[in-house]
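Appendix B.2, paired examples.
Example (i):
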Amino acid sequence: MRSDYLKPALLLGPLVLFLLLAYAIPFLGVVRWSVTLPELGLSNYARAATDPLIVSVFVRTFRICFFVTILAVAMAYMIALVWVRGTPAQRLIAELCILIPFWISVLTRAFGWVALLSNRGLINTWLTQLGVIAEPLTMVRNELGVVLGMTHFLIPFAVFPIASAMRSLDERVLLAARGMGASRTRIFWQIFVPMTLPGILGAAIMVFVFSLGFFITPAILGGGRSVMAAELIYLRLFQSPDWGLGAAISVLMMLIVGGLLALLMRYVRPGGMVR
């Protein structure tokens, strides 16, 4: 019996040690900064909760992450549907669309969106030449550009939990509904979508958590006008510098992410069932 527990412990030991050295100990140092710099106490957390600038950044961060989550999950659902239930050719195309973005760096993608959306970018140039618009549309250095860039990056991550939920469906339920005369539309909305809800919830929480920590894409596409929490932390730590306040904001973001992950573990089982 003892060997049954010893072998997994030996296998997991190096991973646990690495996580402690690489994440837990540095995070405890950040927590210490948040309550000791510039003086001992919780003044940094009070500032983070009451400063209008910081509060506005948090509100903007959650607003952008909300829209990114909705768009990314909706598009990922359509891609996953083709990937799981399409023809072989459709599945191959969907798989390429999912995998190819992982081969391109986030920096390259961000500058690609700048080339598309800037005032002299491809989209504005084409629309102007076609006579659709007289003046260039402002699609970068605002929240629109940030949402588009982040959504593009996060769609592949949302596909996997949704596709996993779709593959775990019991086909007999769909066949029974079809045999009882239900239309394809009714089967999809009343049976298929509810049965894949665990994958949707998992994808939504995953995308929301990832988007909370985005830095490069908002910094490039936002142009300093749509500052999000990660960029604010960077500014407080390396530009101001105000290490105590930056550390406090970091701890608050970690608590939010931890709460969302706990929510995911509480309500969605690994097997794809909602508790």
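Example (ii):
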Amino acid sequence: MPESARLDRYRGGVPVYRYVLEPQTPPVQVLRFEHDDPHRDRPHIHDFPALLYVTRDEEPPADGGAAAPGTEQEWPRAGDLYLVAPGNVVRPPVSTFRRTGATAVFFAPEAVSHQGSRAASWRSHPLLFPFLHGTPTGLLRLRVPAAERPEWTRTIGALETELAQRRDGYRQAALAHLTLLLVSVARLAGDVLGDLRRSDEPLLAEVFGVIERRYRGPLSLRDVAAEVRLTPGHLTTAVRRKTGRTVQDWITERRMSEARRLLTETDLALGTVGRRVGYPDGGYFARVFRREHGIPPRDWRAAGHPPSR
């Protein structure tokens, strides 16, 4: 995990990490799989997108070894690109990626979409849509053509240089290099995700738009389904398939995102915070917050946690 990743909560016993975007934290980070880190081999979830780029071929070990996630029969090759979907349980064999010279690029999605703290909004951004592929493994494998690989290597190297030197304007420069990578990703994913983009991107954008407008008041799956003119069952299937999470999960996440911000940035009473994020019952708000974060809202505020988005 990058330095900016923080353990936020557990979901079904699996740790969930969030990207903490602070003034001293770059909006994107690069991590090379060069050293052993047992924590990375364990199943985990992160609520921000990432990509893994394989830079060299490596023969699998004599015993067959572990294939890359989502490619049970195929060993990773130079030019393989894996898109890591937020919200899915990922079980990456890190030793495999280390032998193939993989590099991970993690980033705060709101920094790309310029949507500030609006947690749901970035998911309708065209450059970030490929990361909502919803594959069962949480990773989508693409191939970077041989002719484009030198440019990928240069761009990632330039990104690393900006992050290492941190000269004036490095954040803007880092985002510019990241944008170039994301444009390339969107083009590579066009053939794979073309049908999904045409049929489901408008739907996802509409769903997150409804959540953004209404999360402060009463809002249920049926309410969202009614606004997008689908049955609750159909909507649940479509959203889970593309994002790995349910509509109710996204409603809760949006409410929790705003609750964390209010707890950190204001002195509002806990009951007032709950009411502002759609929970008129303060006790129920506290129970939901504790379920999602492992501690009650009062302790979160006392600990001085930074805003998660």
